[in-house]
Every structure is written in C-alpha cells, then in structure tokens.
Amino acid sequence: MLPPPPLSMALGAALPSLTPENRLDMQIATGFDPSVLPPLYFGEKPLFGMAFNRSGLPPLNLGNMPLLLLAQTLSMLSETFSLDDLPALEMEMAQTAQSIERNVWPRLGRLTSFRMEPLLNFANIARLTLDLRSMGIDPFAVDALPQYPQGALPHFNFALTAPQVSMARTVALIPNIISLNETLSLPPLSEPGSFEMMSGYMSNLAALTPPNLAVQFPKLQKLALVIQSLDTIEEAFGPDAFGPWMLDRIETMLAVWNGFSMPLPPLEPLALNAKLESLPSLEAIELGLESAQGAAMAMVTFDASFSPPNLAITPFLNLTQALSGSFQKVLEIDPFDMCSHCPFA
User: What pTM did the predictor assign?
Assistant: First the structure.
C-alpha cells in the first residue's frame, strides 16, 4: 500500500505542456483554419454553421456521427483482424477464443487476484515517474519543484470554444470514413454504387456472432488492466519494484514531493492539462482537413439515411485487440496463435 502521488508530482509532470509554445489548444486555435474546409454536412444539416461555402469546394456529406465513429472502430480493428475477408475473420475469432481458454487464462488468470485500488495507484505513480524522466527530471533526486520564469505560464484559460473542440474532433475522424472502402477492400467511394456495396458488406459483418468464451469478459478486462499496470510499474522501477527496498525508496520519494512548495494552486492547471490530453493532435486534424478536401473534390458522399448496423463482434474484437500486446509481452509468444503454443512447433 503506497500513498497516492502528491499533487506537486502531477503538477511537475503537467507544467511543460502548459507553456504557450506547447499548449495544444493554442496550436489548434492558431493552426487550424476551418475556412479551407469544404462545407460539411450530416444529411441536410450543416455542421458547425458551415452551410456557406467559403472554401469554394463542393460540399462533403459525412452521413451521420454513428457512421463516423464506426469507421474509426473498423479502421483500428483492421490492424489486427481480416475485416475484409469474413471466413478468415471467423477463423481468427475462433482461434483467439480457443487460445484464451487453453493457453492465456490457465497461465495468467491468477493475476486477477490482485487488489486493483493499490495496484492502479502504484501504476499512476509509475506513469508520473516516467513522465518526469521524459522531461529530464529524476523524481528520486530533485529537491524542489521545477521552476518556470515569471510569465512562462500566463494563464490557464482553455483557448477553444465547445464548437471548436467538436469541429477538431470531427475533422480528425474524417480520414477513417474516407478510407473505409480500403479498410473493407471495396471499390472507391466515388464510384457509382460503392456506398450500397459497403452497406451490404456491413450487413454481412453484422450477421457474424462472436465465439462463446468460458472466461467472462470482465475477468479478461481486469487481467488486461493488471498486466498493463505491472508493465508500467516495471518500466518505471525495474523488476524489483515490489521488493521492500524499492517500496521504501518510493515512499521516501513521495514524502519528499509532498513537502515541495508549489508555485501556484494546482487544480486549475491540472484541469487544463486533462482537457489538453483529450484533444486530437494538430497533425490528425491537418490530415482530416486534407482528406475532406480530397473527398469533396472527388464528389464522395455518404447516405445520411443509412443507419450503421450494430456489430455483435465489436466488443470481442476490441477486447482481444487490447489484450494482445499485453499478453504477448508476458508470454513472449503470440498469445492468439495456437501453433506458437504447440510443443512440437
């Protein structure tokens, strides 16, 4: 049981992101020019008051927000699963389920006995330690909170309005929907009948059912969280992180940080930092802007009346994709490849 990390530690890790030259909200406010976007629509509804065509580009109909979010999900899942080949996808899901039940859970299931509250607290301390080290600060060696010149942190007012945040997030999603045909290996969306073909393929995806798992989803989610936490803790404090000597050293470090004098009240800058971390990167927004311009020029359009089907396989695919990296690091082999577990391989 370690005490929670002091606010001074969180503040020390957050302050570099809050200087004007590093503030993502300020970068978006000055670097993202919505006037060069084509008029964006969901059906007949203009987004963000963009019915007036200031860019000179044709309008771009994005269909609806559920379709935009589904495109993002499918884009991420396509990195692991064969979404463009339904028989192969069914085989991959069955193989994954068998490997979880026969190999992963028998070897790692015991880790779910960890008490989560102290483990997550330890992982939070480890993340802050890694953040400080990435800034060149050894949290075990400092004797005062890092100082900034007067005027380096002029204010902590969020530089974006709610509509600007919504626009930035929506634009950052556009590349996923524009490349949806590539994700599913379908004809370009600018070709006649391509959208109908895509909606038909999604209906076939929706007809698939996930394999039955003997291990309950919440237990697998807990296992993934435990392994990710242990990985972070080991990265920060080494393989002896749970040894008495290291735990004593960490407690001493936390006590030292707890005694630091903070140059400003921490709650306002920490609240701002949380907002900044929820924003898409400026690079993602710029990529979305380019995708929107290209799609408008190609006269791509999406049918707003199309209601994306509920894909029953999505929770299973999302969970197993999230588990894969953590499991592979612990097992040192591909956790969802049955052949890699065979003693005769």
Answer: 0.84
